Amino acid sequence: MLDNELIRYIKSNYLNFFNKEERLIYNSILNSQKLSKLSLEAKEIFSQNIEDFRCNNLQKEEENLFFEKVIFRIISEEKVYINRCPYCGTLARTPYAERAKCGHSWYNPNVKDK
Ligand SMILES: [Zn+2]
């Protein structure tokens, strides 16, 4: 049930539910991703200029496990609204969307003041 789309959805819409430790790990993953695209020289500058720079070299599988664990926790503990298309179940981009990639549109009671 924890597909990549759902992980993306929670990461982009409910980052506020990541606790402090989870946020640190998430940031370090983002830092590693940024670093991996830089030249050696740029890497040096980048890592010297970021306060509390952290970069833990998690393997891809460890990263995936981390996100699965966090997302699962958030879904079970926090108030999240999984906004799926009522016709086909496709996940929308945000909790407020009334249209998904499938092209269907619907009425979303979460959306106020249209
Ligand atoms: Zn649909």
TrEMBL record:
Name this polypeptide is given: Uncharacterized protein
Native source species: Flavobacterium artemisiae
Lineage top rank: taxon: Bacteria
